[in-house]
Design brief:
By secondary structure, the chain is mainly beta. Among the domains are: 192 residues, Beta Barrel (Porin); 195 residues, no CATH class. It is built from 8 helices and 35 strands. The protein has a 13-stranded mixed barrel. Helix 1 crosses helix 2, helix 3 crosses helix 4 and helix 3 crosses helix 8. The longest helix has 15 residues.
């Protein structure tokens, strides 16, 4: 009931299990929310916590009292558990309540030990209450402890002394067999030796824990010298290209042209068409029926089968080539948007199960006509991996690879042919929520302005697209409207109806892991101008460097310009699925500073710990990113695809070190981003690298088992 895991008010040395989130509610509050600050009070205590990292628990707590009027208090708690046990059954932890902030109602530091023997858990600890919190109940100031007896997984009896009162009660939970796998739901019933502000001595609460992702056994790479994947070479020089229509071009020798007929054409052509194929044999054109192709050129028949399987699975712009025993499959993935790695797993399964023992494959994943990731390997080895028999085999993986279908080709002719083939009406419409909010202010527990945001992206030619974004205001609390207090204290932060982005963008793949994008148009419903974004992801993608530069002019006040200049570096720790992202420079509003974001990936959920500085003000916060779209999206209907967003991010932060309270600050460290950028539109929300794929290889196997046979 204090925003940390434990008994009632006493924290123990356990933490929320890594990869799980907890939502708790109870009616016991204290501190400034009591008419008598030395007593407990009835109120609403809401806690959202998560096992953000192994042995790390973070939680946000919002407290509202009933005996006093006005507002609520938002605070952050953190607990660190020792990864080592002094002896079997003994856990140690340290924690801090009300981390940072300026109005610290619950500022408490503590250390605690918990020893479990059989069905009994004994906890003993000590804490120190400081600052403004010394004016209240002094709970956890000095020694505290408790004991819990849990004969079953759904019932336990608890006794504790929290330094303010002695409490006793029970924890009742639903049996695990009654809940979805990994879920826990329990209620707390507590009696206290101390009367509360309203004379009551009994309190209650509820707790729900859910897994953020399906629990899987992760197979991490062993420590070994890193070297490039060995490339298989074969003496056969014949190369064949099979396009997205029935036309097939086969040319022996070095004069092969990957941009020949059928190399890149409309996916809509039916694989069951009886139009005869044309085979180029040294300049003499010969008509062959499907039966003759299958009999006289089995490789062409296999190529047609590979393409048909990929198109049936929902992949687009499928093109196939062969070099000796190595099959090259270029395609776009419009369906597995929540995480592109799922699509790679399905594609690898479809292709590897069609190839022979001595054959290899290379998947060239493209986005808006540009190669963004290459994955290649030995077909039988991948069959065994996807079946769960082995770990991921040594494989070729490349970020922003060269176009394997463009080799030995006239670049100008290939570019012109690709442009003509790419032109089509196939917009993607993304529907997502947009929210502007405040939590735990003197005006309310949660105030917000909610809008429905729609992004329409229409590809033009390879790498080019038009993006239009529009907001429809959906709902606002009173303080975001003119009807609120003081004419709407947050009115200026409300999301307004209207078009926010009208932008033309051209992305260019330079090779060597380097990609850039130039955008021109109207941004954020306020600015007009040009923006450049460049990113370099060398090697296996552990490191990513990014530069964002923009020259923007306010459309209402042309004399006001925004000239953001930002550089960022991201490091991905493959062994823990954790990334550190640091951005520094001049932000959109002209403020200079930095933002550091530690992100833990748990399935498709990302948990964020945030530290930032803007013009000498320091902030700390927590946040999360979740997909608001299915694991597999719908296919196109009449060329149009409607999807949800794979990257809905929400974060809350508090200013640090202020002596004049905890003022609200809107807009610091704001990046000049549009939804259609390199990170989101091309690189899977910055999750498309060899390091990330290896760390999340179980996703590929899971997706193949779920969707591969459909």
């Amino acid at each position: 009931m204090q925003g940390v895991s434990g008994l009632f008010n006493v924290p123990d040395a356990s933490v929320i299990e890594f990869g799980k989130a907890s939502l708790a509610f109870d009616r016991q509050v204290d501190g400034r929310f009591s008419g008598n600050p030395l007593l407990n009070d009835s109120g609403n205590d809401i806690v959202f916590g998560a096992g953000a990292f192994p042995h790390v628990e973070v939680a946000g707590r919002n407290v509202t009292g009933e005996s006093t009027a006005g507002g609520s208090d938002l605070s952050f708690n953190m607990k660190l558990q020792s990864p080592w046990q002094l002896f079997d059954g003994l856990d140690l932890a340290i924690g801090q309540m009300d981390v940072g902030g300026s109005v610290n109602e619950y500022d408490t530091t503590y250390a605690v030990a918990t020893w479990q023997f059989g069905d009994v858990r004994a906890t003993l600890g000590g804490g120190k209450v400081t600052g403004k919190a010394t004016n209240y109940t002094l709970r956890l100031d000095g020694a505290f402890g408790g004991i819990e007896y849990a004969p079953t997984d759904w019932f336990s009896v608890m006794l504790e002394d929290d330094g303010h009162s002695r409490n006793a009660g029970v924890r009742l939970g639903l049996p695990q067999a009654w809940l979805p796998q990994g879920w826990q739901l329990s209620t707390l019933l507590m009696g206290s030796s101390e009367e509360g502000a309203d004379g009551r001595k009994d309190w209650y609460g509820f707790n729900l824990q859910i897994p953020l992702a399906q629990k899987t056994e992760r197979t991490l790479p062993k420590s070994r010298p890193r070297k490039p994947a060995e490339k298989v070479r074969h003496p056969v020089v014949i190369e064949e290209v099979y396009g997205t229509e029935q036309g097939v071009r086969i040319t022996s020798g070095p004069d092969f042209e990957a941009a020949g007929p059928g190399a890149s054409s409309d996916d809509s052509t039916s694989s069951s068409s009886k139009k005869p194929d044309r085979l180029n044999t040294g300049g003499t054109s010969v008509q062959y029926s499907d039966a003759q192709i299958a009999r006289d050129n089995p490789m062409a028949a296999k190529a047609r089968r590979l393409r048909s399987i990929m198109v049936k699975a929902g992949f687009e712009r499928v093109r196939i080539a062969r070099t000796g025993p190595r099959w090259i499959i270029a395609f776009e993935n419009p369906r597995y948007n929540a995480n592109v790695v799922d699509g790679l797993g399905v594609a690898a399964g479809l292709i590897s199960h069609q190839l022979a023992e001595n054959e290899f494959f290379y998947l060239q994943l493209e986005k808006y006509g540009l190669p963004v990731f290459g994955l290649g390997g030995h077909a039988p080895s991948w069959q065994r991996f996807l079946a769960g028999e082995t770990a991921m085999p040594p494989s070729e993986m490349t970020v922003a690879p060269r176009n394997e279908l463009q080799r030995n080709t006239n670049m100008i002719r290939h570019a012109a042919k690709s442009t003509l083939d790419y032109l089509a009406f196939r917009p993607t419409i993304t529907v997502r929520p947009a929210i502007s909010s405040t939590i735990g202010t003197e005006f309310g527990v949660f105030d917000y302005s909610l809008a429905t945001r729609v992004d329409v992206v229409q590809p033009l030619w390879p790498g080019a697209a038009i993006n239009i974004t529009r907001d429809w205001s959906t709902y606002e609390t009173d303080d975001f409207t003119e009807d609120g207090r003081f004419g709407g204290v947050f009115l200026s932060q409300a999301i307004e109806d209207g078009v926010k982005n009208k932008v033309f963008s051209q992305a260019i793949r330079h090779g060597g892991g380097f990609t850039s994008m130039v955008s021109y148009g109207e941004f954020l419903g306020q600015y007009e101008g040009v923006q450049y974004e460049g990113r370099w992801e060398p090697g296996d993608g552990r490191h990513r460097f990014q530069l964002v530069v923009a020259d923007l002019e306010d459309m209402d006040f042309p004399e006001d310009v925004a000239e953001p200049l930002l550089a960022s570096w991201r490091y991905f720790a493959q062994s823990t699925n954790t990334e550190l992202n640091i951005t520094t420079g001049r932000f959109l509003e002209g403020d200079e500073g930095f933002k550091a974001d530690i992100t833990q990936h748990v399935g498709n959920v990302q948990l964020h710990l945030i530290v930032k500085e803007s013009e000498n003000d320091q902030f700390a916060g927590i946040g999360f990113t979740v997909p608001l779209t299915p694991q597999r999206d719908m296919k196109r209907i009449a060329g149009i695809q409607v999807v949800g967003t794979p990257y809905f991010r929400y974060e809350v932060s508090t200013i640090l070190g202020q002596n004049n309270g905890n003022p609200l600050v809107f807009g610091p460290n704001r990046r000049p981003e549009q939804y259609y950028n390199l990170e989101n539109a091309f690189y899977n929300g910055d999750r498309l690298s060899a390091a990330y794929v290896k760390a999340n290889q179980e996703r590929m196997r899971s997706a193949w088992k779920k969707y591969g046979k459909q």
